[in-house]
Amino acid sequence: MRPIIGVACTKMYFPKNDLDQFFYVGSGYVNGIARSGGTPLILPLLTIQDAPFREMIESLDGLILSGGEDPSPHLYGEDPLQGLGDINYERDITELEIIKIALELKKPILGICRGMQILNVACGGTLVQDIPSQVPGALQHAQKGSRQYGAHKITLQPGFVADALGKTEVLVNTSHHQAVKDIAPGFKVTGCAADGVIEAMESLDGLHVGVQWHPERMWAHDDDMLKIAEAFVARVKQQKLQAAK
Q1: Which CDD domains is this protein grouped with (predicted)?
Q2: Is 214 among the catalytic positions?
Q3: What's the pLDDT band for 15 if we cut at 50, 70, 90?
Protein backbone atom coordinates (compact mmCIF):
# COMPACT_ATOMS: atom_id res chain seq x y z
CA MET A 1 0.00 0.00 0.00
CA ARG A 2 1.10 3.56 -0.67
CA PRO A 3 2.10 5.22 2.61
CA ILE A 4 -0.01 8.14 3.80
CA ILE A 5 2.06 11.27 4.27
CA GLY A 6 0.59 14.35 5.90
CA VAL A 7 1.67 17.79 4.71
CA ALA A 8 1.22 20.42 7.42
CA CYS A 9 -0.42 23.58 6.09
CA THR A 10 -1.11 27.05 7.37
CA LYS A 11 -3.99 29.56 7.17
CA MET A 12 -4.41 32.83 5.33
CA TYR A 13 -6.94 35.43 4.26
CA PHE A 14 -7.43 35.84 0.53
CA PRO A 15 -7.49 39.33 -1.02
CA LYS A 16 -10.81 41.14 -0.56
CA ASN A 17 -11.89 38.60 2.07
CA ASP A 18 -10.86 39.50 5.60
CA LEU A 19 -13.61 37.44 7.23
CA ASP A 20 -12.76 33.85 6.32
CA GLN A 21 -9.43 32.09 6.73
CA PHE A 22 -8.44 29.30 4.39
CA PHE A 23 -6.02 26.40 4.76
CA TYR A 24 -3.30 26.35 2.13
CA VAL A 25 -0.06 24.67 1.17
CA GLY A 26 2.03 24.74 -2.01
CA SER A 27 1.00 22.13 -4.56
CA GLY A 28 4.62 21.08 -5.09
CA TYR A 29 4.71 19.23 -1.77
CA VAL A 30 1.74 17.00 -2.53
CA ASN A 31 2.63 16.48 -6.20
CA GLY A 32 6.12 15.28 -5.28
CA ILE A 33 4.81 12.81 -2.72
CA ALA A 34 2.24 11.44 -5.17
CA ARG A 35 4.85 11.09 -7.93
CA SER A 36 7.11 9.24 -5.50
CA GLY A 37 4.61 6.56 -4.53
CA GLY A 38 3.03 8.14 -1.47
CA THR A 39 -0.52 9.25 -0.74
CA PRO A 40 -0.45 12.93 0.24
CA LEU A 41 -2.90 14.24 2.81
CA ILE A 42 -3.11 17.94 3.66
CA LEU A 43 -2.94 18.30 7.44
CA PRO A 44 -4.97 21.32 8.61
CA LEU A 45 -3.66 23.85 11.09
CA LEU A 46 -6.33 23.36 13.74
CA THR A 47 -6.63 25.98 16.46
CA ILE A 48 -9.81 24.71 18.10
CA GLN A 49 -9.83 23.50 21.68
CA ASP A 50 -9.15 19.77 22.10
CA ALA A 51 -8.09 19.40 18.46
CA PRO A 52 -7.58 15.69 17.61
CA PHE A 53 -3.87 16.00 16.88
CA ARG A 54 -2.99 12.53 18.14
CA GLU A 55 -5.66 10.89 16.01
CA MET A 56 -4.43 12.87 13.00
CA ILE A 57 -0.80 11.80 13.42
CA GLU A 58 -1.74 8.19 14.23
CA SER A 59 -3.51 8.01 10.86
CA LEU A 60 -0.30 8.99 9.02
CA ASP A 61 2.82 7.05 8.09
CA GLY A 62 4.98 10.15 7.69
CA LEU A 63 4.90 13.94 8.04
CA ILE A 64 6.15 16.88 5.97
CA LEU A 65 6.56 20.27 7.64
CA SER A 66 6.22 22.98 4.99
CA GLY A 67 7.70 26.46 4.61
CA GLY A 68 6.27 29.74 5.82
CA GLU A 69 6.59 32.36 8.53
CA ASP A 70 9.36 32.79 11.10
CA PRO A 71 9.03 30.71 14.28
CA SER A 72 8.50 32.77 17.42
CA PRO A 73 11.92 33.43 19.05
CA HIS A 74 10.67 33.10 22.63
CA LEU A 75 10.17 29.40 21.88
CA TYR A 76 13.95 29.00 21.85
CA GLY A 77 14.71 31.46 24.65
CA GLU A 78 15.41 34.66 22.71
CA ASP A 79 13.85 38.09 22.41
CA PRO A 80 12.87 39.32 18.93
CA LEU A 81 15.58 41.15 16.99
CA GLN A 82 14.95 43.95 14.50
CA GLY A 83 15.39 41.62 11.53
CA LEU A 84 12.68 39.17 12.63
CA GLY A 85 9.94 38.72 10.02
CA ASP A 86 6.27 37.86 10.32
CA ILE A 87 5.42 35.15 12.85
CA ASN A 88 2.35 32.94 13.23
CA TYR A 89 2.21 31.80 16.83
CA GLU A 90 -0.91 29.70 16.31
CA ARG A 91 0.97 27.75 13.68
CA ASP A 92 3.98 27.42 15.99
CA ILE A 93 2.05 25.86 18.85
CA THR A 94 0.10 23.57 16.53
CA GLU A 95 3.23 22.30 14.79
CA LEU A 96 5.08 21.86 18.07
CA GLU A 97 2.26 19.60 19.21
CA ILE A 98 2.15 17.49 16.05
CA ILE A 99 5.96 17.21 16.01
CA LYS A 100 5.92 16.04 19.63
CA ILE A 101 3.40 13.32 18.77
CA ALA A 102 5.19 12.30 15.58
CA LEU A 103 8.47 11.95 17.47
CA GLU A 104 6.77 9.89 20.17
CA LEU A 105 5.21 7.59 17.57
CA LYS A 106 8.46 7.38 15.56
CA LYS A 107 6.87 8.73 12.40
CA PRO A 108 9.41 9.92 9.81
CA ILE A 109 9.50 13.70 9.38
CA LEU A 110 10.79 15.85 6.50
CA GLY A 111 11.05 19.54 7.37
CA ILE A 112 11.44 22.03 4.51
CA CYS A 113 12.68 25.60 5.10
CA ARG A 114 10.56 26.79 8.06
CA GLY A 115 9.76 23.12 8.57
CA MET A 116 13.42 22.39 9.28
CA GLN A 117 13.58 25.38 11.62
CA ILE A 118 10.50 24.50 13.67
CA LEU A 119 11.68 20.87 13.86
CA ASN A 120 14.98 22.09 15.29
CA VAL A 121 13.18 24.35 17.79
CA ALA A 122 10.80 21.56 18.82
CA CYS A 123 13.77 19.32 19.61
CA GLY A 124 15.67 21.91 21.64
CA GLY A 125 17.69 23.88 19.08
CA THR A 126 17.89 27.61 18.29
CA LEU A 127 17.72 29.78 15.17
CA VAL A 128 19.52 32.64 13.49
CA GLN A 129 16.70 35.20 13.46
CA ASP A 130 18.02 37.19 10.48
CA ILE A 131 20.94 36.03 8.35
CA PRO A 132 21.83 39.41 6.74
CA SER A 133 22.28 41.11 10.13
CA GLN A 134 23.72 38.14 12.06
CA VAL A 135 25.98 36.24 9.65
CA PRO A 136 29.02 38.24 8.48
CA GLY A 137 29.77 37.70 4.80
CA ALA A 138 26.50 35.85 4.22
CA LEU A 139 25.46 34.80 0.75
CA GLN A 140 22.16 36.02 -0.68
CA HIS A 141 19.77 33.48 0.84
CA ALA A 142 16.62 35.14 -0.51
CA GLN A 143 17.28 34.82 -4.22
CA LYS A 144 15.88 37.43 -6.57
CA GLY A 145 15.65 35.19 -9.59
CA SER A 146 13.21 32.38 -10.28
CA ARG A 147 12.87 30.27 -7.16
CA GLN A 148 12.28 27.11 -9.18
CA TYR A 149 15.99 27.00 -10.04
CA GLY A 150 19.22 26.79 -8.07
CA ALA A 151 21.05 29.88 -6.80
CA HIS A 152 24.00 28.71 -4.67
CA LYS A 153 25.82 25.49 -3.92
CA ILE A 154 25.89 23.56 -0.68
CA THR A 155 28.25 20.87 0.53
CA LEU A 156 26.73 17.68 1.89
CA GLN A 157 28.04 15.33 4.54
CA PRO A 158 27.11 11.63 4.67
CA GLY A 159 23.44 11.20 5.49
CA PHE A 160 19.94 11.10 4.06
CA VAL A 161 20.26 13.94 1.52
CA ALA A 162 23.69 12.94 0.22
CA ASP A 163 22.49 9.35 -0.13
CA ALA A 164 19.29 10.43 -1.89
CA LEU A 165 21.05 12.72 -4.37
CA GLY A 166 24.22 10.66 -4.74
CA LYS A 167 26.28 13.86 -4.48
CA THR A 168 28.43 15.74 -2.00
CA GLU A 169 27.78 19.13 -3.65
CA VAL A 170 24.49 20.36 -5.07
CA LEU A 171 22.99 23.58 -6.44
CA VAL A 172 19.90 24.63 -4.48
CA ASN A 173 17.33 27.39 -4.60
CA THR A 174 17.09 29.68 -1.59
CA SER A 175 14.20 31.63 -0.06
CA HIS A 176 14.86 32.30 3.61
CA HIS A 177 16.35 34.83 6.00
CA GLN A 178 16.49 32.55 9.05
CA ALA A 179 18.47 29.39 9.66
CA VAL A 180 19.36 26.79 12.26
CA LYS A 181 21.92 28.16 14.74
CA ASP A 182 22.43 25.63 17.54
CA ILE A 183 21.54 22.16 16.32
CA ALA A 184 19.09 20.27 18.53
CA PRO A 185 20.35 17.39 20.70
CA GLY A 186 20.09 14.10 18.85
CA PHE A 187 20.65 15.73 15.44
CA LYS A 188 23.66 16.26 13.20
CA VAL A 189 24.44 18.81 10.49
CA THR A 190 24.62 17.18 7.06
CA GLY A 191 24.76 20.20 4.74
CA CYS A 192 26.15 23.74 4.73
CA ALA A 193 26.47 26.69 2.37
CA ALA A 194 29.86 28.32 1.75
CA ASP A 195 29.09 31.00 4.37
CA GLY A 196 28.51 28.37 7.06
CA VAL A 197 24.70 28.58 7.06
CA ILE A 198 23.25 25.15 7.89
CA GLU A 199 21.31 23.76 4.94
CA ALA A 200 20.55 20.17 6.00
CA MET A 201 20.26 18.21 9.23
CA GLU A 202 18.97 14.84 10.39
CA SER A 203 18.38 12.92 13.56
CA LEU A 204 21.00 10.39 14.59
CA ASP A 205 18.52 7.57 13.93
CA GLY A 206 17.85 8.93 10.43
CA LEU A 207 14.08 9.23 10.87
CA HIS A 208 13.84 13.02 10.97
CA VAL A 209 15.37 15.20 8.26
CA GLY A 210 15.42 18.92 7.53
CA VAL A 211 16.49 20.86 4.43
CA GLN A 212 16.69 24.63 4.30
CA TRP A 213 15.96 25.10 0.60
CA HIS A 214 12.70 24.35 -1.25
CA PRO A 215 13.12 21.10 -3.21
CA GLU A 216 9.36 21.00 -3.84
CA ARG A 217 9.75 24.05 -6.09
CA MET A 218 12.52 22.33 -8.04
CA TRP A 219 11.35 18.74 -8.36
CA ALA A 220 8.64 19.60 -10.91
CA HIS A 221 11.43 19.93 -13.50
CA ASP A 222 14.48 18.49 -11.71
CA ASP A 223 14.43 14.70 -11.47
CA ASP A 224 17.54 14.76 -9.30
CA MET A 225 15.83 16.94 -6.70
CA LEU A 226 12.75 14.69 -6.84
CA LYS A 227 14.99 11.97 -5.40
CA ILE A 228 14.56 13.65 -2.00
CA ALA A 229 10.82 12.98 -2.14
CA GLU A 230 11.42 9.46 -3.42
CA ALA A 231 13.93 8.73 -0.65
CA PHE A 232 11.56 10.09 1.99
CA VAL A 233 8.68 7.96 0.75
CA ALA A 234 11.01 4.94 0.77
CA ARG A 235 12.07 5.78 4.34
CA VAL A 236 8.41 6.02 5.38
CA LYS A 237 7.63 2.64 3.79
CA GLN A 238 10.58 1.05 5.56
CA GLN A 239 9.55 2.46 8.94
CA LYS A 240 5.95 1.37 8.40
CA LEU A 241 7.10 -2.21 7.72
CA GLN A 242 9.31 -2.23 10.81
CA ALA A 243 6.49 -0.89 12.98
CA ALA A 244 4.19 -3.67 11.74
CA LYS A 245 6.57 -6.45 12.85
Answers
A1: GATase1_2
A2: yes
A3: confident
